[in-house]
Every structure is written in structure tokens, then in C-alpha cells.
């Protein structure tokens, strides 16, 4: 069930919405969203979004207690200037893809026109909100997210930095990103200033069982279980590892991977 991770850990996402330890904002109350995949090939993911704070959402609690999913994304929002409305809440969805982002495009009002005009005209009608995060998603789709996510995101980042520099923005991009096609999940940590928002991945379950053989929670989860989080959900020794600055990783069946992230300029 989703509630096992959204509500039950010591420093769960719901707790983080009130008491973020590592985020820029201590409180993230400008909306929430969760997207999940069901174990059926080709199924479009479900989503639930709300404009209120996650800690007070009865709908989120009801859904989290009812939905069982092998892969889901969840987000709490602190607006960087765009309106608090459902279309601006993460995760964003296109076909079988989900996308969420922590960070910002600096001086977005200066570069927004150039970024929006670079999006594939066939994709443009699907944009619903006004955030820089959704624009990044559709720009990545334009650059081939569905074929090669790491390359597409590197091209997206390089394009945004190029546009920003042309408009006199010294450090255009701050981002940690999670995106999924329902089978794999990619996570990216990068910023133009090389001091990115926090991002962690959980240690391999078999290694954790060796470290904590008496922990009952570890006995009840799959060997393939992996969590990607902005902040650790608890204080279990050895459970959490920081994603290195300017790196991307993929969680997939079998061996997961992590590689350097290098923006590709136009």
C-alpha cells in the first residue's frame, strides 16, 4: 500500500510536508500529488492531485490506504511563484510517463518564451499548467525522453542553460528530477551552480538485511525494492546514500545504475 511509505515512516513524505529538514522551504503546503502504476502492461498511470497541504488531505489518506502499486511517485509542492492550482501539481503525466521536479529555472519570466517555443508543436496542446517544471518535462519529451531519457534530459538541461546565459542569467538551472515509464525510474541531480537539492537512494535490500537481521520490515519487502527520496525517511544506519552531485541513476529490474550527468548544449 502507498500509505506504508507516505504515512508510516518516522520522517515520511507527509511529515516532510510540515517539517522538511533539507529543503529550501521548511513547509511544503502548496499542493501535493501522487502517481502510480498498476501491474498491467501499457496501462496509463493513475494520479491524484490536490491544492491543499498533504498533511490535511482526506482524499490522499483514503487513496494511500487503498492503492497497492509496484512503482509510484509522490510529491509535495512549495511554489516558486506560479499559481497554486491542480494543473501545477506534480507528477505531470503524458501517455505512460510521469515526471516530477524539485528546483527551478532561474528568472523563468526572462526565458519562458524561448523555452515554450522550443517544445514540439504536437506536444504543446497537452501542457495544462504554468510551471517551469512542466515546461521542462515537455522539453525533455521534445528531445526524445521516450527513447533515451538520460540523453533527452541532458539536452534539456543544456538548452535551458544556453537560453539562460543568452538572457544574462548566471546560473539558470537547479533540479532534481524523477521520471518513469512504468517499468524503470530515472532520477537526476544537477544544478548550474553545482550545489543541487538533496537526493538519496536506499541501499540494496540484501545488504540491509545483513546489516539489520532482526529488522522485521526488511523481511517483508522484495529484494528489488528501492526508494529514491529528497530526504531520508528514517534514521536506519546504512540505509541511505546521497546521489553524487551531477549524476543520474536508473532503478530497474536487475542491476541499478548510476552515471555522471553532463548537460549537452545545442
Automatic annotation (TrEMBL):
Signal peptide: none annotated. Residues 1-266 form the Glutamine amidotransferase type-2 domain. Keywords: Glutamine amidotransferase. Pfam families: GATase_4. Gene3D superfamilies: Glutamine Phosphoribosylpyrophosphate, subunit 1, domain 1. SUPFAM superfamilies: N-terminal nucleophile aminohydrolases (Ntn hydrolases) (SSF56235). It comes from the Bacteria. This is Class II glutamine amidotransferase.
Amino acid at each position: 500500500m502507498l500509505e506504508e511509505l507516505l504515512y508510516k515512516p518516522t520522517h515520511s513524505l507527509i511529515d516532510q510536508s510540515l517539517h522538511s529538514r533539507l529543503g529550501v522551504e521548511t513547509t511544503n503546503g502548496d499542493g501535493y500529488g501522487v502517481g502510480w502504476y498498476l501491474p498491467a502492461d501499457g496501462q496509463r498511470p493513475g494520479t491524484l492531485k490536490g491544492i491543499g497541504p498533504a498533511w490535511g488531505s482526506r482524499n490522499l489518506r483514503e487513496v494511500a490506504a487503498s492503492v497497492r502499486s509496484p512503482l509510484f511517485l509522490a510529491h509535495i509542492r512549495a511554489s516558486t511563484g506560479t499559481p497554486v492550482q491542480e494543473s501545477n501539481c506534480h507528477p505531470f503525466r503524458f501517455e505512460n510517463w510521469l515526471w516530477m521536479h524539485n528546483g527551478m529555472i532561474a528568472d523563468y519570466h526572462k526565458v519562458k518564451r524561448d523555452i515554450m517555443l522550443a517544445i514540439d508543436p504536437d506536444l504543446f496542446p497537452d501542457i495544462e499548467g504554468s510551471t517551469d517544471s512542466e515546461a521542462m518535462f515537455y522539453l525533455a519529451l521534445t528531445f526524445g525522453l521516450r527513447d533515451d531519457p538520460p540523453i533527452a534530459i541532458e539536452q534539456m538541461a543544456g538548452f535551458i542553460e544556453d537560453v539562460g546565459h543568452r538572457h544574462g542569467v548566471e546560473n539558470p538551472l537547479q533540479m532534481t528530477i524523477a521520471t518513469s515509464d512504468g517499468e524503470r525510474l530515472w532520477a537526476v541531480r544537477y544544478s548550474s551552480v553545482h550545489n543541487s537539492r538533496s537526493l538519496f537512494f536506499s541501499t540494496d535490500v540484501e545488504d540491509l538485511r545483513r546489516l539489520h537481521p532482526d529488522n522485521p520490515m526488511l523481511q517483508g519487502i522484495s529484494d528489488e525494492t528501492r526508494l529514491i527520496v529528497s530526504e531520508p525517511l528514517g534514521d536506519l544506519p546504512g540505509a541511505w546514500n546521497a546521489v553524487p552531485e551531477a549524476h543520474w541513476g536508473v532503478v530497474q529490474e536487475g542491476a541499478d545504475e548510476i552515471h555522471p550527468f553532463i548537460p549537452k548544449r545545442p
